[in-house]
Amino acid sequence: MSDDVGPAPEAGTDAGSTATADxxxxxxxxxxxxxxxxxxxxxxxxxxxxxTPLVVNVPGWLLVFLExxxxxxxxxxxxxxxNLEYGFTGLVNFGHVVFFAVGAYATAILAAENPFAGVGLGxxxxxxxxxxxxxxxxxxxxxxxxxxxxxxDFLAIVTLATAEIFHDLFAAFRSLTGGNVGLGGVPQPIxxxxxxxxxxxxxxxxxxxALLVGTYGLIQRLVTAPYGRVLRAVRADELVxxxxxxxxxxxxxxxxxxxxxxxxxxxxxxxxxxxxxxPGFFTINVTVIVWIGMLLGGPARNxxxxxxxxxxxSLQLFTRFFSGIGPITQTDFGSIRLMVIGLILVVVIRYxxxxxxxxxxxxxxxx
Amino acid sequence: MGLIQNVLFGLVTGSYIAIAAVxxxxxxxIVNMINFAYGEYMTAxxxxxxxxxxxxxxxxxxxxxxxxxxxxxxxLVVAKGFFTPLQDAGPIxxxxxxxGLGFVFRNGFRLIAGQETRYYDKIDTTxxxxxxxxxxxxxxxxxxxxxxxxxxxxxxxxxxxxTFLATHVLLTRTDLGIAMRATADNEDLALVSGxxxxxxxxxxxxxxxxxxxxxxxxxxxxTNVNAGIGFSQLLPIIAAAILGGAxxxxxxxxxxxxxxxxMSVSVVVLPTTATQLGxxxxxxxxxxxxxxxxxxxxxxxxxxx
Lengths: 367, 305
What we know:
The structure holds two protein chains of two kinds.
Chain A: H1 7-26, H2 34-51, H3 60-88, H4 96-111, H5 125-147, H6 152-172, H7 174-177, H8 189-193, H9 197-224, H10 226-236, H11 238-243, H12 248-274, H13 284-297, H14 302-313, H15 315-322, H16 330-351, H17 360-363
Helix pairs in contact in A: 2-9, 3-9, 3-12, 3-13, 3-14, 4-5, 4-6, 4-12, 5-12, 13-14, 13-16, 15-16
Chain B: H1 3-31, H2 38-55, H3 60-83, H4 91-113, E1 127-130, E2 137-138, E3 141-142, E4 147-150, H5 151-173, H6 175-185, H7 187-192, H8 197-222, H9 229-243, H10 249-269, H11 278-292
Helix pairs in contact in B: 1-5, 1-6, 1-8, 1-9, 1-10, 2-3, 2-4, 2-8, 2-9, 3-8, 5-6, 6-8, 9-10, 9-11, 10-11
């Protein structure tokens, strides 16, 4: 009967790990629809401010929190997609910004009305965003089909080079994209509905926040399902996944395309919020900040990557508040902030490669 | 401007890309990392050279020598401080660390040296003009045409050739160079053969940094000096190194001249609205190479399963 002893502990650990996965999914409120309620609540409050004469009045110094908050929420969609690609599937995508940019430019070109430079087709904005998402996903398909078979570090280079190519193309084709100046005249639906700038920011934050909650719920559902276990298996060992009858390439492709489409959606919303797009919004710095947020929080944990991202991006607040004090200029402060961000990346990789909340065993960094 | 002229410009660009790409590919070969902080070694060299030549008024060859030494020292210190502790962690942690360090150094240079772009005082150059070459227009592209070459261009190309020769002699005729190749080829085997691989790695870091410092100095004299010059050349350098087969110095030289000429000639071929797409063309070459022949002209397999 000693044969029975062997598998038993293994089954036990398996059950244990499933339990933690469930725990992180819902905690004490597991089984109750917390996320949908939270999302709907945010939308309801947003609607109250958008469609009634209610306005938000906040002191000027608080505005910057709203602005940074909106960026955190938008980049939050980016980091969730990237986490699906890298954290769960192990794809080293260093050109994540390109999908964000494609979504934004597609939305802008389609929806803009009478921009100063470039083309604006005046298509209704929901259709424009949809096309942006589809185009970003298509780029993901093309890039994935051609380069997902490359080794990790070379995949990083191809994706990074792709992002640089698109960045240059957006700057070069002035007649279509407005060149370095960019494309203005993009409709701003929330701004049009709200009475003043503060209300606009507040409502935007709530709407994008609800979207982030929805994205979080969907991805969390996806990765706690058996599907997510296959993704993790692909990350841990492709050969094993393959021998279990799961084609790693198929799962990599799906993960990559989901991440790309999400980034495209974030890009489209960014264009509608900002009212303009320009190459300067889509530099490699976006990719790097999203990556650092993910690594700092802990890859393969959706809540952790959002936390890490918020932490990194709130550094921007310091730049705004402390510049102007003393002899340090705004540009110097910008340089210092980027130095700090780079240093955080170096320190995290060296001393805490699993991130603040990550599981070293799962990420295979505990040797 | 005719095609000949642009090919000439491409050879000059290819020369300084090649000097840097040889260093980049040596690091790849021996430490197995793609070093995104490599551009900053070049920026360091460019600033050191500029200070020596402009502030202290020493002649350019002396400044170049100081830039070479400075680049090598900088590279060694960075490697000992940040890369060596991670050398067993695999390529991705090293790559991410180098990206973080790139941010730190690039913005550090910007903080210390300021935003402005600095120029060398006008350097006396002789221009050799070759005129009377007939134009040969094919589809709007002039395949021949008059061209010129300056003594500075020739110096850059000559310097690159001397550097390649010196690197070649080092790698094939000295014990250290042979140890480098052995370590790159099979580190465990090198170790049991009595090669001190840690020492060899350190030597490679110094050599790569020195080459980067020289390349940075050359770019600085050719164009200008600012905090972003190294980073702006990094992707063409990576493209050249991979095109030549990552890890192969000879491949990197060939790859660099291909990239340099492609970047320069695409200016002639592309419509005038898209002339700034020269670097884009280089990246396109890189992607096509990785898709069609990922091992480059020489070199190794980089595809999985």
